[in-house]
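To the team - S-adenosylmethionine complex, inputs and output below.
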Amino acid sequence: MDPNRFVEGDNLDVLPTLAAGSFDVIYIDPPYNTGNEFAYADDFRDGRRRHTKHLAWVSMMRPRLLEARRVLSSRGAIFVSIDDNEAAHLRLLLDEVFGESNFIAQIVVNLNPKGRQLGGGFATSHEYLLVYARSARHCALDAATTETVNQRDFPLTAADGRAFRHLPLRNTNKKFNPVSARTLHFPVWGEPTTGRVSSEPFEGGHEIWPVFGDGTPAVWRWSRPKIDAQPDDLVCRSVNGRLGPRIDVFQRDWLHEGRRKKLSTIWTAEEIGSTDTAVAELKVILAHVFESPKPTGLVRRILTTMPADSEVLDFFAGSGTTGHAVALQNLADGGTRRCLSINWAEPTRPGSNAALAGYRTVADITRARLAAVAAALH
Ligand SMILES: C[S@@+](CC[C@H](N)C(=O)[O-])C[C@H]1O[C@@H](n2cnc3c(N)ncnc32)[C@H](O)[C@@H]1O
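Output:
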């Protein structure tokens, strides 16, 4: 079966036909409320009209997000793209529908690195990705990846050629102190010329207690048995602290094969692509027939934070970026994700590239891209 399915229709009609709990990842990029499509033709003063416009957008989204919640599995998460027009309203609406305790992140996505030069104020160069779990406790999201581990963070090299960095063995988090973590407050012995560290006194070894920068008592991050088991991963050094030179203990933190790092909440265009690269991607597989597609890199990064056998849903599919990204990511990591895309038969603008290329509706574009992806990749 083609892992990329498409249904044409108003998502509010299609979503209720889908089984409860049947999707693990929902990505949507709803209309941003930039134009007047959500404003009522009325003669309210400006403030009232703006208020009505937001209300109309929220009323459009609420029943669709309630359906989204219903079709999410207990391990699932929803990712929603949004810009400044509705970011605040959407955040509150998602809190209402999914519960504030299921908020995972509000990610800044730098899709327009040059920034919008039109209009006053700043050259806006980012939008947002709001992430909520169906249930934060059961959510399968894992934001650690090998992709963003930076060799430059590991500037030291051991005799055997392995790269590493020094991390203080003492716990720098003030929440952990001799009162809250009593068993981690004990002396170790170290010698800075050889670097030797031991939990027992030795000839020439200095007794070292964990202290904060201001000299107040702290605790170690490692227990005594762990220190005894991994003495070669520790090193004693003389350092210049706030209160002058002192002897301290450091962990050698190795850059090993498969090392992972948590993704930050700022995603740059270099990492995931920009709106320009998204247009170029669409041009390669189809033609320049959609105004603001998302880069497949954005959706692929989302997919890597969730299980590789996820059922994926995009019910504002547009040009079909999510289906394309699912096919690319499966190819890259051997995943078995399947994707359902939904878009209604919104007529293309007369005279637009899409209309001139013979696409009568956006749904025609979605279908055409997914067919091109299937022909090229499956
Ligand atoms: C911002 S675009 C999505 C773009 C997409 N992420 C991409 O990369 O091409 C929003 C899409 O939602 C579709 N849409 C809006 N309201 C809809 C509805 N009620 N049901 C289904 N599709 C809808 C529009 O036709 C449009 O294609």
